[in-house]
Amino acid sequence: MATGGTIYYGIVYGDTKAADVYHAIALLNDGIHNWARQDGAEWRYEGVYDARVCVPPVPARLYMAWGFVFNTESPGAPPHTACPR
């Protein structure tokens, strides 16, 4: 169980409400965890990723709106960290 971290939440609007996609990421001590949902479905956990080696699993415009910058040039990822997409 995490004892601290930061959660970011956003929505990317589609052409219809059913096409809207919600995204949430949690920055925790063991990595950046990602969830998504669409059209009122349950939230789907999409895994942990390392922004040093993976392109973020959320749309770039949302990632940048949160104030993040991607850097995929750092070598290596921590053990058990994968690119979820």
Please explain how this structure is put together.
The chain is mostly beta strands and 85 residues long. The chain has one domain. 7% of the residues lie in helices and 34% in strands. The protein has one helix and four strands. The chain has a four-stranded antiparallel beta sheet with strand order 1-2-3-4, with no helix packed on it. A hairpin with a 5-residue loop joins strand 3 (31-38) and strand 4. The protein starts with 5 loop residues before the first strand and ends in a 20-residue tail after the last helix. Mean pLDDT is 78; it is low at 73-77.
Shape: globular
Based on CA atoms alone, the radius of gyration comes out at 13 Å
Number of helices: 1
Give the termini separation.
Answer: 25 Å
Q: Give the overall pLDDT as a whole number.
A: 78
Number of domains: 1
List descriptors:
85 residues, 34% strand, 4 strands, mainly beta
Summarize the structure.
This protein has one helix spanning 60-65, and strands spanning 6-12, 21-28, 31-38, 44-49.
Fold blueprint:
Elements: E1 6-12, E2 21-28, E3 31-38, E4 44-49, H1 60-65
Antiparallel strand pairs: 1-2, 2-3, 3-4
